Amino acid sequence: MFQKMLIDGKLVGKDAKGKTIKVINPADAKKFAKVPKGTKKDINKAVAAAKKAFPAWAAMPLKKRQAIVSKMADVVADNAEMLARLMTKEQGKPLPEAMGEMAWAEGYLRHYATLQPKGRTIQNDDEFKIEVRRVPLGVVAGICPWNFPVLVPFWKIGPALIAGNTIVIKPAPTTPLTILKILEMCNEFVPAGVINAVTDENDLGPVLTNHPDVAKVSFTGSSETGKKIMESSAGTIKRVTLELGGNDPAIVLPDVNVKETAEKIFGGAFLNAGQVCLAVKRVYAHKDIYDEFCDELAKLAKDTIVDDGLKQGATMGPLQNEAQFKKVKALIKSAKKDGEVLSGGVVKGKKGYFVKPVIVKNVKDGDDIVDKEQFGPVLPVIKFSDIKKVAKQANASDYGLGGSVWSKNTAKATRIASTIQSGSVWVNQHINIGPHIPMAGFKASGLGVEQSDEGLEEYTQIQVMNVAK
Ligand code: NAD
Q1: How far is CA 453 from CA 118, 139, 165, 218, 456, in A?
Q2: Mind listing the pLDDT tens digit for each residue in 205-235?
Q3: How far is CA 108 from CA 77, 112, 148, 271, in A?
Q4: Which of 18, 222, 287, 337 is most deeply packed, by most CB within 10 A?
Q5: pTM
Q6: Domains in the chain, CATH or no CATH each
Q7: How far is the CA of 383 from the centre of ligand 1 (A)?
Q8: Tell me, what DSSP letter sits at residue 239?
Q9: How many A from CA of 222 to the centre of ligand 1?
Q10: Which positions are annotated as active-site residues?
Q11: What is the SS3 assignment for 124?
Q12: Distance between CA atoms of 292 and 95, rounded to whole angstroms?
């Protein structure tokens, strides 16, 4: 399979014989497709096309722009199974999860298609009419990670287009296929240059973030890259939205139903093999239930069927790429040294990047597996005894993306949750997100907001229209 890039309404990239990037199936570590290797020239062409398309797109009545975003949702819905299969092959997640991502992407697009940037009139009297308008910025660069290769680009495309901007998408180097395929289908009705997509080998991001004609960068990825993006965007004072890493704590109080809570936390930790920014990445379990809670998690880990995501019955796929596999293997090694591994580990005898869920007991703050973002199927469980101090412990992290508190006493749990320094805090649940719910991060987890009306505003610029009568 060879899938071209999209620039100025044209499918670009010589053919499979030109310079290409291999797309690897993480379930067998074998190449199964190719995409063109984009160049600096391709980025420049894509930005020029987006700049050229911008005035007409921004001037198009909102209803028409909304209809185009709705049609994109139709494309995702009408082709969900074919697209989900392709995504499982390139990303690794089990087919039902890939179908879930298609449903999510469709739902987010449908919601964006109902939104509109909201201005307001702040004065209208005999002397002046003063309006605050929300106008588009121009060309947006959407730089994407590999964990949700369809959902995340549409988190950017949807609001960017509704606000009246045009966009250049740069997928992650290891997961370009599915999103390029969808954009090819959408090219039938999206005006040329409004959406462009250029693939790279991790080398073209800076070309976008330094480009003088890019007005805003919307980035989802690691905190390290986020810092570089802020730095390089400074030269041209670009607007920047950064959705970065996380190390979400889940605090479990002693009054919970252990089995039920363990099941829910397990789900929140191991979705997409733990490669989720908002996954539970550390559990603080009270000493009274600690052993029982760890045992329940370990049982669930042992029951997980780790296999090729296209195989029926697989409940967890491989890690997405070799670099992440190596990073997770190193963390498992350090976890074995620092604590007690109750279950799981690297799956032997398979070619792909498979890890069976690892539950680590008797670890503490300061251990690598607790302090670092694992972004993989390894969950440390820390014992705590002082409910008054546990939020402070959870807050001693550079990250602040999400967090949750679990208790039968929801009022008490909510009080503790309100002291967690994270953009999203949940009570008796984890990862309840949606297009109408803002998503933001404290500290090294990000800058700005995505989703919802607040997220849409970030794709606009305030303009004050002040008319003397
Ligand atoms: P990454 O930062 O390595 O890469 C993300 C994207 O940035 C890729 O497209 C990459 O090519 C590009 N990039 C790399 N260097 C760049 C540079 N100097 N300038 C511009 N672009 C550059 O992250 P990843 O490995 O793809 O994703 C994993 C990380 O992303 C995890 O830390 C995870 O928590 C985080 N993440 C966060 C969210 C969120 O919404 N907060 C969502 C998904 C992933």
Answers
A1: 8, 20, 16, 16, 5
A2: 999 999 999 999 999 999 999 999 999 999 9
A3: 12, 6, 13, 19
A4: 222
A5: 0.97
A6: 5-244+445-468 (3.40.605.10), 248-434 (3.40.309.10)
A7: 32
A8: E
A9: 4
A10: 243, 277
A11: strand
A12: 32
